[in-house]
Design goal:
6-stranded parallel beta sheet, alpha/beta
């Protein structure tokens, strides 16, 4: 089986982690894998340093016929069996490729919860796709509602992580860097700093928490979607609420397992998520989690009241109360941590994800 993965993302994010992890695992299992990506992109650099074969193409979007033509030449020459596409803008290029090479098999992964328009052109786009992998049932539902393709061609496969890597990470790095002693409770968010991630909700909840639990610090780890402008807006919010000394912006970090290990509580405050992989990362580290419903996907990861807390509104006081409940109950922290870690290992391990994707490939090649 020869597989070409396609990801045109310029920057590094969850979809790119997914793609690289999938490539590496497939290669380790003996599959012939190549990654088509843009030159100079983050995923291109990671592929290069990790020994993943790659094909550099412009991959500029829905009318990039040149990339489709070059892909067809590559696939024909190298006898590619399956093209697996990870970004919506690349779906179109793959569809043109299918016109040039009707025998090629197409698999799309849908990483976004946002529905796709149910237009004639979009139905044409999905007509020749063998399978669509939805990263959550909520994502599958968003596709099914639009009637873009039959539900039996949409397969839900949860994102996976190297759970053992997160569980084995060492703690203490973050506390040493900032001089936080063990009496200080670290409450953190990891991910892009952006309005839809609910960073403002997190800071507003901090203003309630710090009044009742002074030994707390609130950490935001991730890159600003506006190159620093939004973080400045959040800093002003913290100043106005009187928590500027308790809120820390750590920027993007590569050592996420070690960071997670130092947190006492992990928070996901997003308005919507296709799949909150950072929740799984925290759970794999044995860290208790508190999350908004995140568009319904949190319920697929957390068992509310058993492996973490889910709040069903976007009120800062609701988020603060859930966090304070954990701060006041060390036994509950331990219970959530252990139960969450077991659930991460049982349901969201990378090995399981890749094996399920291989099953999709096998099914596709039988048709």
């Amino acid at each position: 089986m020869k597989i070409l993965q396609v990801n045109s993302a310029k920057n590094w994010g969850g979809g790119e982690v997914y793609t690289i992890n999938l490539c590496q695992k497939l290669i380790s299992k003996g599959y012939d894998v190549t990654l088509a990506c843009r030159p100079g992109s983050a995923i291109n650099q990671i592929a290069s340093t990790n020994g993943i074969s790659f094909l550099e193409l412009p991959l500029t979007g829905a009318i990039d016929f040149r990339s489709a033509w070059k892909l067809s030449q590559y696939c024909r020459k190298n006898k590619i069996d399956i093209v697996h596409v990870h970004l919506a803008r690349d779906y179109w290029i793959a569809r043109y490729l299918k016109m040039l090479l009707p025998e090629i098999h197409l698999v799309f992964t849908r990483h976004l919860l946002k529905p796709i328009k149910s237009t004639v052109i979009h139905k044409w786009l999905f007509r020749k796709v063998d399978k669509v992998i939805a990263v959550s049932y909520a994502v599958k539902e968003s596709l099914s509602v639009q009637e873009l393709l039959p539900s039996e061609r949409i397969i839900t496969i949860y994102n996976g992580i190297d759970t053992k890597l997160f569980a084995a990470a060492h703690s203490g790095m973050l506390r040493k860097e900032f001089g936080f002693d063990n009496s200080i409770k670290l409450i953190g968010m990891v991910g892009q700093i952006a309005p839809h991630k609910g960073n403002d909700l997190f800071i507003k909840s901090a203003s309630y928490i710090s009044k009742q639990w002074s030994n707390t610090r609130f950490l935001l780890i991730g890159d600003d979607f506006q190159d620093g402008k939004y973080i400045e807006e959040l800093r002003r919010l913290g100043d106005n609420l009187g928590v500027s000394d308790e809120v820390f912006f750590l920027g993007p970090r590569s050592n996420i397992p070690e960071i997670m290990k130092d947190l006492n509580i992990f928070v996901l405050a997003s308005k919507s998520e296709s799949f909150g992989l950072v929740l799984v990362e925290a759970m794999a580290c044995g860290v208790p989690v508190v999350s908004t419903s995140a568009g319904g996907t949190a319920q697929e990861i957390i068992i509310n009241g058993e492996t973490g807390f889910i709040i069903n509104d976007d009120k800062p006081l609701s988020l603060a109360n859930a966090i304070l409940t954990l701060l006041r109950d060390e036994k509950l922290v331990d219970t959530f941590g252990k139960a969450g870690q077991k659930r991460a290992f049982d349901k969201f391990d990378l090995e399981r994800m890749v094996d399920e994707i291989i099953s999709v490939y096998d099914d596709v090649l039988k048709t």
